[in-house]
């Protein structure tokens, strides 16, 4: 069994269980063993729910490889949405680990012969829907004193996603008046696409977006699926109506959404192979300037993304100021060393001039690319 590719690095999957633990033994069997043998205190503390969430994510990749030809795209999309909703419900403790047993049993039945047909998939979808329908109806047990996670203030941010049709690279860049904005806003996978999730942020929108792109959904369909399946668990103080996110696939097609309660000025603007979005900004001119700069700047994708951030800041940027910035670019085997899909991953976590520091790093990376290219030419 393999760990899912790191969404930041998109590295080749790494084996985390011995080779003899194959999916042929049944992913469902592995899930059930986890449920049976996990400790009660661990369950009450929420740890097992996290393991189950992770395991369901890994299992979906295996299931997709077992679909028979008659399984429709609509069925595949329906299961992806229901599984993602169930995983979120587990993370938010709206359902218990025990409540997912019907889904585990449905997976075991469906994968027994290493093939999943349309009828079996319908049964799995129905079982998952039934579990999700019970979300929030029963209080999930906790250990006394176990901390309840509280949200950070809304992530006032401006970001841009971009694609270079000449190189096939796709990526994004972001700046904000929060500490370490790169820790959660940008998600990318080579051959799949890139996601930015911000404002009243739900970080799970990142991996959800990549999962749906990988399953074959368009960015527009993925945005709608994520938004529609968000149960809005904290409407009073962390409402989905304030979320903002954008999705771009590996060919530069994109879609973005700004919730009606994202703090002003908030919005998004698209251009040629780019989409810029932001909230708590000086004005709409921030995102307009970012798109214009991206389209007019020549050279490597990193230079175009950097120019967009600089233009956004020059137009007023985040009204609260500056603190951190980040950039992430991916392409299959596009990074240095062997089997590295990360062309560039840079983070400035805490700096009074984060864009100045980010540009310094971008320029260093450009010099490194020039040295590598020169060395390759000499070998020829």
Which secondary structure elements does this structure contain, and how are they paired or packed?
Elements: E1 2-3, E2 14-15, H1 27-37, H2 40-44, H3 47-64, H4 73-91, H5 101-110, H6 118-133, E3 157-164, E4 169-176, E5 186-189, E6 193-199, H7 205-214, H8 219-229, E7 243-249, E8 254-258, E9 267-271, E10 274-278, H9 285-296, H10 301-314, E11 324-330, E12 342-348, H11 354-379
Shape verdict = globular
CATH class (first level) name of the largest domain: Alpha Beta
With strands numbered from the N-terminus, the spatial order across the biggest sheet is 9-10-3-4-11-12
Task: Please give the alpha-carbon distance between the first and last residues.
Answer: 41 Å
Task: Please state the average pLDDT score.
Answer: 83
Radius of gyration: 22 Å
- Low-confidence parts, pLDDT < 50 over ≥5 residues? 1-25, 32-46, 142-149
What is the number of E strands? Answer: 12
Would you give an account of this structure?
40% of the residues lie in helices and 18% in strands. It is an alpha+beta fold. It folds into two domains: 2-133, no CATH class; 157-379, Glutamine Phosphoribosylpyrophosphate, subunit 1, domain 1 (4-Layer Sandwich), CATH 3.60.20. The strands form three sheets. A six-stranded antiparallel β-sheet has the order 9-10-3-4-11-12, with helices on one face. Strands 5-6-7-8 form a four-stranded antiparallel β-sheet, covered by helices on one side. It has a two-stranded antiparallel sheet with strand order 1-2. Helix 4 runs parallel beside helix 6 (118-133) and helix 9 (285-296) runs antiparallel to helix 10 (301-314). It is globular, with a radius of gyration of 22 Å.
């Amino acid at each position: 069994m393999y760990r899912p590719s790191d969404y930041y690095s998109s590295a080749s999957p790494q084996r985390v269980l011995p080779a003899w633990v194959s999916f042929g033994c049944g992913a469902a069997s592995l899930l059930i063993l986890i449920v049976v043998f996990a400790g009660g205190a661990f369950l009450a503390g929420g740890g097992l729910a996290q393991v189950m969430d992770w395991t369901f994510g890994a299992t979906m990749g295996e299931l997709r490889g077992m679909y028979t030809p008659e399984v429709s795209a609509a069925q595949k999309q329906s299961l992806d949405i229901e599984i993602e909703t169930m995983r979120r419900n587990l993370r938010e403790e709206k359902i218990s680990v025990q409540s997912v047993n019907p889904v585990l049993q449905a997976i075991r039945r469906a994968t027994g012969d290493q093939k999943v047909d349309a009828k079996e998939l319908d049964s799995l979808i129905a079982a998952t829907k039934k579990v999700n329908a019970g979300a929030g109806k029963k209080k999930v047990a906790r250990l006394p004193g176990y901390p309840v996670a509280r949200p950070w203030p809304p992530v006032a941010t401006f970001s841009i996603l971009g694609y270079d049709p000449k190189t096939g690279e796709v990526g994004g860049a972001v700046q904000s008046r929060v500490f370490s904005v790169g820790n959660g806003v940008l998600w990318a996978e080579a051959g799949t696409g890139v996601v930015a999730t911000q404002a009243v942020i739900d970080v799970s929108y990142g991996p959800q977006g990549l999962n749906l792109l990988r399953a074959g959904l368009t960015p527009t369909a993925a945005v709608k699926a994520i938004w529609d399946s968000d149960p809005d668990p904290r409407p009073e103080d962390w409402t989905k109506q304030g979320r903002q996110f954008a999705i771009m696939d590996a060919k530069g097609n994109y879609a973005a959404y700004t919730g009606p309660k994202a703090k002003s000025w908030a919005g998004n603007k698209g251009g040629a192979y780019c989409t810029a979005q932001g909230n708590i900004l000086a004005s709409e001119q921030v995102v307009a300037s970012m798109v214009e700069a991206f389209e007019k700047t020549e050279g490597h994708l990193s230079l175009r993304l950097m120019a967009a951030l600089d233009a956004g800041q020059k137009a007023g940027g985040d009204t609260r100021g500056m603190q951190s910035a980040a950039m992430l670019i991916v392409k299959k085997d596009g990074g240095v060393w062997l089997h590295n899909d990360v062309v560039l991953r840079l983070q400035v976590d805490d700096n009074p001039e984060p864009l100045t520091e980010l540009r310094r790093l971008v320029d260093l990376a450009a010099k490194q690319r020039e040295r590598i290219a020169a060395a390759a030419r000499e070998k020829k």
